[in-house]
């Protein structure tokens, strides 16, 4: 009887190995229950003479991606100047460093009608703003950009007519599409639709 030296080593039976693989392959087996073998590494990588990164996983410090202090938009020169300008105070220009004086309302008049007693500074500024707005609105005159509708291509016009006939375009929009003018591509002149 020949004995192989490997037969003397305690090895699990074939049945227990099958049972173990069956238990690990079950869908309900938690991941923590599955044994994982981690290969052993040398302390120093022989090729690069450096300590591998994965050995210091417990000692890894987060990279400083953030700035040391957070930006405060209320302290920015542009925003400060904007607040000062809107409140009517003196401010210095951000780009050209030009000094702008604070806004002053003219002094109260000293007429016989007693305007100084009838109106205070807030009322005067409110009335001034209303007057400026009314003058601005009245002076705006809107002119039409086109004197007639722009012509469209004949193919597009025919496509719109087909959609009108097939009721794809709602009935109350159809007169608009039927009255559009189209342009003949070859000649380049406008033709009114019939």
UniProtKB/TrEMBL annotation:
It comes from the Eukaryota. Residues 1-31, 66-99 are annotated as: Disordered. This is (apollo) hypothetical protein. Residues 71-81 have a biased composition (Basic and acidic residues).
């Amino acid at each position: 009887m020949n004995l192989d030296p490997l037969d003397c080593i305690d090895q699990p039976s074939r049945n227990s190995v099958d049972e173990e693989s069956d238990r690990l392959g079950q869908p309900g087996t938690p991941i923590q229950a599955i044994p994982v073998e981690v290969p052993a590494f040398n302390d120093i990588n022989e090729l690069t003479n450096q300590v591998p990164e994965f050995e210091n996983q417990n000692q890894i410090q987060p990279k400083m991606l953030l700035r040391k202090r957070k930006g405060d938009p209320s302290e920015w020169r542009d925003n400060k100047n904007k607040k000062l300008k809107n409140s009517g105070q003196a401010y210095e220009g951000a780009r050209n460093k030009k000094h702008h004086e604070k806004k002053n309302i003219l002094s109260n008049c000293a007429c016989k009608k007693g305007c100084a007693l009838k109106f205070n500074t807030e009322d005067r500024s409110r009335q001034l703003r209303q007057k400026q707005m009314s003058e601005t609105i009245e002076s705006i005159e809107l002119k039409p950009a086109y004197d007639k509708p722009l012509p469209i291509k004949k193919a597009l016009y025919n496509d719109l007519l087909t959609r009108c006939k097939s009721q794809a375009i709602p009935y109350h929009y159809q007169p608009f599409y039927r009255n559009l003018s189209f342009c003949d591509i070859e000649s380049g002149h406008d033709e009114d639709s019939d």
